[in-house]
Design a protein that fits this description.
The structure is a homodimer.
Chain A (H helix, E strand, L loop, with lengths): L3 E2 L5 E3 L2 H22 L11 H13 L40 H17 L3 H17 L8 H6 L13 H19 L3 H16 L16 H12 L2 H13 L6 H5 L10 H4 L16 H18 L2 H17 L31 H17 L3 H15 L17 E2 L1 H6 L19 H10 L2 H4 E4 L2 E4 L5 E5 L2 E7 L6 E11 L3 E5 L8 E5 L4 E5 L2 E5 L2 E10 L4 E5 L9 E6 L2 E6 H4 L6 E3 L6 E5 L6 E12 L5 E2 L1 E6 L4 E11 L11 E2 L2 E2 L1
Parallel strand pairs in A: 5-9
Antiparallel strand pairs in A: 1-4, 2-6, 3-23, 4-5, 6-7, 7-8, 8-13, 9-12, 10-13, 11-12, 14-15, 15-16, 15-24, 16-22, 16-23, 17-19, 18-19, 19-22, 20-21
Chain lengths: ~675, ~675
């Protein structure tokens, strides 16, 4: 169980669907984000990210200015953000923005790295090099690099692990620096990240005098394992293992750091997955992004160390999420309170959180589990999240984003009902807390590394997309029509007889109905939902078609919110109704489950896309006498009007203006 | 339009249903509440109410101790409550509890007064006299009486009208003092209330140097009108009129008192109904209890002054509540955020607030509108709220209470989902913020004054209960089987020929189907849903039976949450399903709308009560193949199991242990 993450440079993507998304990231999102980081987008909230690095760099040069007395920045009403009194002229030596603002640069440089790895771009690289220079100038001589404390006072550094994000910033810096190093071979940022990691290693751990804490927002764990795998330095692995092993051990570190207020109704440790040791955790709880980032690190550790108890915990947490707490869109986090998991089967559609970043984190976790064992239960979920709850996060034109991905929206409700204010009826320009857009950018830019993993002689194809990958003596060329149809063609080329095994995922959504033709006879075997093929010699062409019939799907009956309602899916794509196509009051619409669903190719979303048409009816209520108030009427059987329900892929909703939307349809 | 509130001593109630409730209040609630006020109930949170009056009284005696430098009491996590460090030994000279803690005494003495008026009780009266002595000793020589500031420092008195509750405490003190005076003829507390009102009158108003503010929590308005009607002193009417007229005038007083934080997403003034002048208010908004208390004061003013614009505003606000924002139970306040009204037709059943006190306030508003014009739209709602959303607030044994009255409860959800933590699956012992239990006590103890009003020669019977009332030369004896059946008998007696008119409400729930027999011919006319009868001479017996057939009722189709669901009602009683009778997963239950609903007399709730049995079925989901996760299945038509649905009156839910409950049933 030691599957390998593939080198991004080894996967060349040429796919109508995915290349378009990658180009959108490269041409629109990355340049826009750079402007954001430099506070040059008038209509967006200033980021202050590069401002902070420059301010820290200046302080760093004038070392006598680096005071130690911590100055609390002014927090404003806008969610714990330090903002200047006069936004038009922020002070040069002040920190602004969220405590984790540095990470915005790291996410950007990570996406830039992936993009450069597959699309060299001298201009972008020059901008990135300049940015790296600014960032590196902010680093303290001891390796510490978090501008919040460099600017405000180092004496409080690492004193609030629970709520401040120094180790989170370290994690993102590592991820970004490795990406940029792998793309360009330039190691300036990687060295900076290593120095910061070395400093953290010198400060945290079991040894006497070290801090026995761990990250309040996980990510450093998986980042440090990646740093270990990149540099071969054992100390990074050990540091990551320390963070994972120590988490949730009694006495609870966060409780010591922040004694619980008397009468507080719940233990904040759940929010941080720090309530019990990780190996004892069986239910996914707390802040959903934090959770899946932690579980990803745990999966890395389980793979690298062979720790069976840790793997068991990963399995249970995977099941907890995907069998009890995941929306059909691959969204996770059913409550906005704490942006968190709710209890099992509590999956409200119109008040959910389902943060784009959380689904991205679920993909991270899935890929790591696939490296441990190739089972389609991971890759199916990965694909489901990608085509639905993740890509819903970005508009077709790449300039606006959803943080929260509801499955049902009535615009009046989300505007007027404070309980739904976290839900937006249209994508927003950018966020003060800008995690989702850059997270989307780094995922899409590196999608090739999720499509494949390798282990020994085997190449696993987890996702299908037009792409080329070589493994040992064999080259594979993939052509794919997913998500429009289930057609996939693989052309394998090897000079002689090859030992390479190709493992193709049979997506569970095809119900194991697929046709396969190979140009030569191959030895085949199905295990864990993968079709293992070997015996490649010369050129071999494999044609597969996975059945992609539209299906009516219902949630488990334990999901109260979905009773009497169904969703329509086709392959990995979940569909929804929009007001634009179906009129207002979508809750009055019911589907006729006996009539087959028609497919319609539409180009209204740019690329050809399959829309669906289902037969159904609209209930029309018929007035009778009032009961006490005209608000209540004595019942009379509703009339119905036959209609065609038009459905579009969920990821594309809210690209045609504001209106009602619903994934679920009345039965 | 000047209907009179009847003197509580003139209505003698002898009714199986209501007398039992009144006895419960007299024997259980009032003594229990007195123990609570004195912190002698070990299992309940201490009130500190009488403690505070004693502490203030001591300070008052030792005037040199009355410092002026305000000491902020320690607020704890438990909802802005000042609590002692050591709960077992609170300090003698400290204020504890909520800023409005004094009002708990006033609500108690008000209920005591009503109870004494109809059930003389020397022992209770002696306890009350003692309590009044303690309270009066706390009053400052200038008339001020709010222990929070007397103890903590008078220099901040009336400096936070928006959030602190001095004028609210004044209002309750007035109401309590009048009740006690009317019951016993003792005016010590009434004089204290007048002195406090006089002091407030000297401090607030349009005149130069006076504070131009108004209550943050309304009630003083209606209380001052009542004080005017009790004492005949014009200045109390003027002060109330000032509070109503000034409310919401620009510049907004609360905004000046509390400048709005930058970027705050909504104007807090809505919460306080202080966003625009009251005559311009057309939609019921903000904190529901505050709202209906204000509207009650507005209705008093409209009646006393004949102000047409004010009456128009009252009409619009009445319609806004009852046609767009009222649950079928008479509950109001659809969101716990701000315990407030939500937008029109937003009436979620499982996350509502529907505070007991808010429905009680709706009854206050209704009675006042009935004094302006006798229209059954007010009395129907009054009765609906009483038999459902108000009486649901108290357990059958009188020892536990609901603050929040949900229409649907799944115990697991309200315990595990933080968004529903305001909802309790069983009634609670007592609350730190104890508004609902004493509010229930004062309403039930004075129910006779809601059953009747008079205007000129006319006696209006708005509610039916076994009772006697005299008007001029005529005595009316009512016998009533409501809510068990629609049978009402009235025996009128007069010595000769009488000019008195009896106006009997024809409840709208009977669909105007009723049978009436009179022992002599009377002159009759129907107006506004009332049957006006005159021509009484000697003894006249009137037998009426209002149709009380169980009805299936649906909400207006604009109520998203109730689509595809119905409620069952019988007369003014709304029914619900409980898990105890119908098993778990009530959302799977559907009613057969074509079969008639059977009635069942049960004694399991003490008095004979009508339970209902409806034919229906339970949907049983049938498993098919998984879609990606076992959480999602390809659809297969559900099977059904025929069942009898047992329904009990909503007010009686949660008297037989914890379990699921739902008013709405699947269609």
């Amino acid at each position: 169980m030691n599957g390998q993450h593939v080198d991004i440079k080894k996967v060349r993507i040429d796919d109508e669907f995915w290349s378009t998304k990658q180009e959108l990231i490269r041409r629109k999102v990355l340049p826009y984000q750079w402007e954001i980081l430099n506070d040059r987008v008038p209509e967006a909230a200033p980021s202050y990210c590069m401002h902070n690095f420059k301010a820290a760099g200046r302080l760093n040069k004038n070392r006598e200015l680096l005071g130690n007395a911590f100055r609390e920045p002014v927090y404003t009403f806008r969610g714990f953000e330090a903002l200047p009194e006069d936004p038009s002229s922020p002070k040069e030596d002040e920190f602004y923005g969220f405590v984790f603002q540095d990470s915005d640069f790291s996410k950007w440089i990570e996406a830039v790295g992936y993009s450069l790895a597959t699309h060299p771009d001298k201009e972008l690289e020059a901008v990135a090099d300049g940015a790296i220079d600014i960032v590196c100038e902010a680093q303290l001589p001891n390796g510490y690099l978090d501008t919040y404390y460099i600017i405000n006072g180092m004496d409080r550094s690492f004193k609030d692990l629970r709520d401040h994000h120094e180790l989170y910033c370290l994690g993102h810096l590592i991820e970004g620096s490795i990406s940029y190093y792998e793309a360009t071979g330039k190691d300036k940022l990687l060295k900076a990240a290593c120095r910061f990691a070395d400093y953290v290693d010198s400060v945290f751990g079991y040894e006497e005098g070290k801090i026995k804490g761990y990250p309040g927002h996980e990510i450093a764990e998986m980042a440090l394992f990646r740093l270990y795998e990149t540099t071969g330095e054992e100390r990074y692995k050990k540091l990551a293992e320390y963070f994972i092993d120590e988490r949730g051990q009694a006495p609870l570190y966060f409780d010591m750091e922040h004694p619980t207020p008397k009468g507080q109704p719940y233990k904040i440790d759940y929010y941080h997955q720090a309530h019990i040791p990780v190996r004892e955790q069986t239910e996914a709880v707390g802040h959903a992004v934090r959770a899946v980032y932690l579980y990803s690190g745990m999966a890395d550790m389980a793979r690298l160390s062979g720790d069976k108890r840790l793997l068991e915990a990963c399995d249970k947490l995977w099941d907890s999420i995907t069998k009890e707490k995941m929306y059909i869109t691959g969204g996770i986090g059913a409550t906005h309170l704490g942006e968190a998991f709710s209890f099992p089967y509590d999956l409200p559609n119109d008040t959910d959180y389902a943060e784009t970043c959380a689904s991205i984190g679920l993909v991270f976790f899935a890929r790591r589990m696939l490296q441990i064992r190739a089972d389609r239960k991971y890759s199916d979920v990965m694909e489901l999240a990608l085509f639905n709850g993740i890509l819903s996060g970005i508009s077709l034109d790449g300039t606006s984003f959803f943080y929260v991905n509801p499955l049902e929206v009535i615009p009046e409700a989300v505007k007027k009902d404070e309980r739904k204010w976290h839900i937006k009826p249209v994508r927003q320009k950018w966020f003060g807390c800008a995690c989702c857009p850059p997270n989307l950018a780094r995922l899409v830019a590196s999608i090739g590394t999720y499509a494949y993993t390798t282990e020994g002689d085997t190449v696993y194809a987890h996702l299908y997309m037009g792409s080329e990958i070589s493994h040992k003596d064999t080259e594979f060329k993939f052509e794919s029509d997913i998500p429009n149809s289930g057609k996939v063609k693989v052309t394998a080329n090897t000079s002689g007889r090859s030992d390479v095994v190709l493992a193709l995922r049979i997506p569970s959504w095809c119900g194991d109905k697929y046709e396969i033709k190979t140009s030569r006879e191959l030895i085949s075997e199905v295990r864990g939902g993968y079709l293992y093929l070997k015996g490649f010699e010369g050129e071999t062409v494999i044609d597969i078609e996975f059945s992609m019939k539209p299906l009516i799907v219902v949630a488990d009956n334990k999901v109260t919110e979905d009773k009497g309602r169904c969703a329509v899916v086709r392959g990995p794509v979940v569909y929804c109704m929009e007001e634009k196509d179906n009129g207002k009051s979508l809750r009055d619409i019911h589907i006729d489950t006996d009539t087959s669903i028609e497919e319609e190719i539409t180009t209204e979303f740019g690329l050809p896309t399959v829309a669906l048409k289902a037969s159904g009816y609209r209930k029309i209520s018929v007035s009778e006498g009032d009961y006490i108030s005209p608000l209540y009427k004595t019942y009379k059987k509703e009339e119905t009007e036959d209609i065609k329900i038009r459905l579009i892929p969920y990821r594309l909703w809210a690209n045609r203006g504001e209106g009602e939307m619903s994934v679920y349809i009345g039965l």
